[in-house]
Amino acid sequence: MSHQAAVLGVGTSSFGKQPEVPLAQLAWSAVQEALSDSGVDARGIEAAYVGSVLGPFGSAQRALQGLGIGRIPVITVENACASGTTAFHEACWAVREGRYETVLVLGQEHMSSRITGAIPPDLGDPEGRSGLALPGVYAMAASRYMARYGLTLRQLAQVSVKNHGHALGNSRAQYSGDYTVEEVLASPLIADPLTLLQCCPISDGAAALVVGRAAARRDAVRVRSCALRSGRAWGYRSEHAWGFEIVRETAEAAYAEAGLGASEADLFEVHDSFTIGEILSIEGLGLAAEGEGGRLTESGHTALGGPQPVNPSGGLLSRGHPLGCTGVAQLAEVTWQLRGQAGARQVEGARIGVVETMGGGVAGLDGNACVVAVLERP
Amino acid sequence: MTRRLPDPRPQVEIVAGRAHVVGQQCAACGLRTTLVVSACPGCRGELAPVRFGPDGTVWGSTVIRVPVAGRTPPYCLAYVDLDGGPRVLVHVKASTEPVAVGTRVRLRGDSGGDLVVELVR
Question: What ipTM does the predicted assembly reach?
Answer without folding.
Answer: 0.95
